[in-house]
């Protein structure tokens, strides 16, 4: 009983930092509609800045002063980011901003590495709260008790700010209808900046306040990001009480999970989230949140037409050129282009469901990695030949997508995105923690192609045929009745339902189709590398695909593979440098600001402006 | 003439508010029936129940004698009911003709087909439909750049794509210029006459209603208070009171009912 109570207290103490970070994310999303991927980075910055300040400021006042100051400093950094990076892209197509925040993650990661070094920092203990208290014979750190006491005050202060003050009224009004707030004479840009300050300051505060418990390290940003997403989704986007309750549930669950079911800790949190969303699709205290419910931002999407003869010839020529690479180029080029081709198919599969279907998935890696693991497991345990494994990979991934899609499509918008993320994480933790079968962190190795395809050159041609074929198939599907029905469901589900289209089912089929195509890419990937590791399933891989689709141009047909090719090639070049993340991050931010329609979209615009391409509507 | 649509004791409550209260009526073959009433009278609630968007608290809706209450909108559509929306709903990323083609593809149950090019399917029939509403010359325009009146006409073409027996139009002329209103309703009346479609519509503009409706029903506070020919309704003192203001009829609390 004593141990149980002590663990409950630990859970409550852990909930403090989690709540602060989650409420910040929730606030920012509520007002600006931006899913701030970089929120974990601000949390990390809070920890590092707090650490440095604690070295300088002495005593009790110094410690708590450092925590507060860290919050304020991180808030100000958030303001700089908002003004320099996000303001220029508010008018871009929706969700494009999250690409910018992804760039911010990379930049902050490398800057932190530059300033504080790669070593993990051990957090200083709070002066006056270094001891432990015995509660029912169990030791409980004094600092935990302090955290348990402080968090409700922070929560209350925040609640007071939001519900009782003029600023709070503006924030709530903007959450409901920001255009109306603008029309009533409120300076929107400063409201956004203010909210960004508050949200980031909360993240920084959370990072600093957990220092005595967890210290600071460079993996903090992604580690907390998943928990924060889960908390915000369980609680309901934009709900403070929801965030608090969910933070407590998750933290307590984690503590108990560690002691009673150590193998399942990573899975547990996502299971809870899935269960909650099955019964309450918009979180415990949330309301329906449809991406784009505030009208389309930016230009409406153009009608599509199959490529004309000229473009077809161009594509054929490009494919011939690609086919010449093994003859002309180096072995290195062959391997690199193989990688790029596989990634392009992966990106194109996401593009299909995101661009055509408006289904924003944050967890598409589940099907890429899933396909890869299906192939690897069959080869390892059943000695399946490559040819069969390459067929089983998309089947497995497609099946997974059928199941995952069935659950995820109960929700819409951001909740849908979060659910897909949760399932990808679920799959990842399954693979990671079920080491006996999957090899865990060591992965599965020695999975090589059949003898006839074992040379780099032959495998390259195999990849070229499958990937180019896959991308062309996806493209054709977009022009088929299926693709049209999918777009119809996205453009106006009301009208689509009123003309006999079962919108949920068509989206489900598209989800499975895209998953299977990602599985094809995953299967090829295993054989090109000879091995597979859990990181093919992790969030970063999902984000890669997502970023690429937006960079290429989400409102275009070829955005996926164009973005994929540019991104992979650039990354390959940049990773030779020490601070490549910084460079890549800045590059992404630059593309986002300079080409808000994505690479393809902006090139098309340029073409139309210069008269190389003609726009049908201009002629009227 | 035979009854196309039969509505029996249809009711819908939102909490304590009865948005639609025991409404019964019959729509006969080839009839152009108007449902009128002040804001908050329950017209849209009524419509949403007929089309399956909203489940009635009680009551039955029959199409050609077959019960359709409880069916999803898409199932009701398959039974031969077309509808247009109060606020237009079109596919903004497609061209005008593709919007109509989409309805035809769905009508022929080809939406899961992955082989043919969608923009070539049922092109001729789609153009015919656009011609019916006078939109053929704009067939290849991007739907997102259309004027509002043209969107309304496009929606009508889309609603006619599966040769419906019954057409439900929720404020077909809302947001249009006066001249356009008359033209659109004239077009609808022509279609009803030429194609033997029956049509139920709601409308605020009395000129439009009196000029084209064969019969009128008046809804107030969720209840049908009158029904009859144009002249009967025009001279009905109760209807006049509702429209010209009896003072107490427009309580703020009751206006919520239509939400």
Automatic annotation (TrEMBL), chain A:
Annotated keywords: Amino-acid transport, Cell membrane, Membrane, Transmembrane, Transmembrane helix, Transport
InterPro entries: ABC_transp_permease, BCAA_transport_permease, LivM-like
GO cellular component, one term: plasma membrane
CDD domains on file: TM_PBP1_LivH_like, TM_PBP1_LivM_like
Membrane topology type: Multi-pass membrane protein
TM segment ranges: 6-29, 41-57, 63-86, 98-118, 145-162, 190-212, 307-326, 388-409, 416-435, 455-474, 508-527, 547-567, 579-596
GO MF assignments: branched-chain amino acid transmembrane transporter activity
Subcellular location, record wording: Cell membrane
Any Pfam family matching the protein: BPD_transp_2
Recorded family membership: Belongs to the binding-protein-dependent transport system permease family. LivHM subfamily.
Name of the featured protein: ABC transporter permease
Lineage: Bacteria, Pseudomonadati, Pseudomonadota, Alphaproteobacteria, Rhodobacterales
From TrEMBL, chain B:
Pfam families: ABC_tran, BCA_ABC_TP_C
GO biological process, one term: L-isoleucine import across plasma membrane
CDD domains: ABC_Mj1267_LivG_branched
Taxonomy, superkingdom: Bacteria
Transmembrane segments: none
Molecular function in Gene Ontology: ATP binding; ATP hydrolysis activity; L-isoleucine transmembrane transporter activity; L-phenylalanine transmembrane transporter activity; L-valine transmembrane transporter activity
GO cellular component, one term: plasma membrane
Keywords, sorted A to Z: ATP-binding, Nucleotide-binding, Transport
Domain ABC transporter, chain residue ranges per copy: 5-246
Keyword flag DNA-binding: no
InterPro entries according to UniProt: AAA+_ATPase, ABC_AA/LPS_Transport, ABC_transporter-like_ATP-bd, ABC_transporter-like_CS, BCA_ABC_TP_C, P-loop_NTPase
Protein name: ABC transporter
Species lineage: Bacteria, Pseudomonadati, Pseudomonadota, Alphaproteobacteria, Rhodobacterales
């Amino acid at each position: 009983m004593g141990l149980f109570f002590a663990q409950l207290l630990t859970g409550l103490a852990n909930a403090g930092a989690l709540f602060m970070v989650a409420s910040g994310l929730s606030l920012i999303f509520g007002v600006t509609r931006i899913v701030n991927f970089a929120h974990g980075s601000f949390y990390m910055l809070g920890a590092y800045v707090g650490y440095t300040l604690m070295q300088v400021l002495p005593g009790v006042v110094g410690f708590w002063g450092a925590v507060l100051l860290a919050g304020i400093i991180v808030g100000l950094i958030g303001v700089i980011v908002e003004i320099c990076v996000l303001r220029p892209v508010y008018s871009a197509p929706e969700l494009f901003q999250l690409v910018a925040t992804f760039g911010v993650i990379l930049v902050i990661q490398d800057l932190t590495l530059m300033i504080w070094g790669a070593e993990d920092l051990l957090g200083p203990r709070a002066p006056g709260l270094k001891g432990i208290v015995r509660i029912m014979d169990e030791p409980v750190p004094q600092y935990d008790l302090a955290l348990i006491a402080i968090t409700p005050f922070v929560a209350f202060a925040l609640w007071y700010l939001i519900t009782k003050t003029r600023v709070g009224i503006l924030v709530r009004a903007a959450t409901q209808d920001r255009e109306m707030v603008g029309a009533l004479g409120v300076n929107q840009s400063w409201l956004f900046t203010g909210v960004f300050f508050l949200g980031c300051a909360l993240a920084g505060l959370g990072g600093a306040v957990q220092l005595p418990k967890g210290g600071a390290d460079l993996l903090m940003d992604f580690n907390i990001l998943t928990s924060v997403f889960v908390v915000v989704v369980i609680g309901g986007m934009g709900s403070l009480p929801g965030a608090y309750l969910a933070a407590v549930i998750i933290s307590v669950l984690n503590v108990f999970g560690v002691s009673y079911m150590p193998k399942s800790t990573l899975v547990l949190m996502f299971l809870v989230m899935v269960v909650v969303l099955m019964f309450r699709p918009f979180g415990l205290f949330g309301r329906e949140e449809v991406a784009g419910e505030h009208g389309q931002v930016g230009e409406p999407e153009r009608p599509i037409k199959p490529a004309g003869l000229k473009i077809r010839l161009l594509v054929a020529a490009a494919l011939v050129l690609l086919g010449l690479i093994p003859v002309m180029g180096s072995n290195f080029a062959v391997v690199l282009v193989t990688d790029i081709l596989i990634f392009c198919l992966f990106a194109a599969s996401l593009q299909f469901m995101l661009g055509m279907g408006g289904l924003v998935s944050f967890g598409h890696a589940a099907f890429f990695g899933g396909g890869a693991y299906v192939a690897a497991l069959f080869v390892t345990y059943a000695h399946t030949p490559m040819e069969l494994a390459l067929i089983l990979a998309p089947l497995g991934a497609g099946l997974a997508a059928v199941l995952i899609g069935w659950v995820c499509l109960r929700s819409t918008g951001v909740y849908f995105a979060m659910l897909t993320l949760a399932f990808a994480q679920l799959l990842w933790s399954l693979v990671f923690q079920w080491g006996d079968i999957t090899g865990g962190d060591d992965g599965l190795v020695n999975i090589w192609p059949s003898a006839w395809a074992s040379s780099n050159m032959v495998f390259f041609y195999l990849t070229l045929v499958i990937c180019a074929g896959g991308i062309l198939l996806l493209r054709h599907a977009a022009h088929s009745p299926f693709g049209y029905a999918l777009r119809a469901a996205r453009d106006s589900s009301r009208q689509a339902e009123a003309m006999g289209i079962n919108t949920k089912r068509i989206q489900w089929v598209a989800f499975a189709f895209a998953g299977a195509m990602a599985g094809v890419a995953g299967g090829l990937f295993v054989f090109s590398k000879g091995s597979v590791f859990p990181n093919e399933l992790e969030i970063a891989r999902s984000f890669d695909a997502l970023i690429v689709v937006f960079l290429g141009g989400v409102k275009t047909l070829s955005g996926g593979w164009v973005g994929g090719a540019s991104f992979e090639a650039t990354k390959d070049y940049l990773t030779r440098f020490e601070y490549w993340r910084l460079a890549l991050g800045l590059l992404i931010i630059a593309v986002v600001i300079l080409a808000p329609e994505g690479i393809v979209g902006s090139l098309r615009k340029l073409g139309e402006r210069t008269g190389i391409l003609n726009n049908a509507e201009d002629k009227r | 003439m035979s009854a196309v649509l039969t509505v029996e004791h249809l009711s819908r409550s939102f909490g304590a508010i009865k948005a639609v209260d025991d409404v019964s009526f019959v729509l006969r073959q080839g009839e152009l029936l108007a449902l009128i009433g002040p804001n908050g009278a329950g017209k849209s609630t009524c419509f949403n129940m007929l089309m399956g968007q909203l489940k009635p608290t009680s009551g039955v809706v029959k199409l050609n004698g077959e019960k359709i209450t409880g069916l999803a909108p898409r199932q009701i559509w398959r039974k031969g009911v077309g509808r247009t929306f109060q606020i237009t709903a079109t596919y903004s990323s497609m061209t005008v003709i593709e919007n109509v083609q989409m309805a035809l593809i769905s009508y022929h149950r080809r939406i899961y087909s992955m082989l043919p090019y969608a923009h070539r399917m049922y092109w001729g029939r789609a153009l015919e439909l656009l011609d019916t509403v006078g939109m053929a010359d704009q067939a290849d325009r991007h739907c997102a750049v259309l004027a509002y009146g043209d969107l309304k006409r496009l929606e009508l073409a889309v609603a006619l794509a599966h040769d419906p027996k019954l057409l439900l139009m929720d404020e077909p002329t809302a947001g249009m210029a006066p001249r356009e209103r008359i033209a659109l309703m004239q077009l609808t009346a022509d279609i009803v006459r030429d194609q033997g479609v029956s049509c139920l519509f709601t409308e605020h503009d009395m000129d439009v209603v009196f000029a084209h409706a064969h019969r009128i029903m008046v809804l107030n506070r969720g209840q049908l208070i009158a029904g009859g020919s144009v002249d009967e309704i025009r001279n009905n003192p109760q209807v006049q009171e509702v429209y010209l203001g009896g003072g107490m009829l427009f309580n703020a609390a009751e206006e919520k009912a239509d939400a």
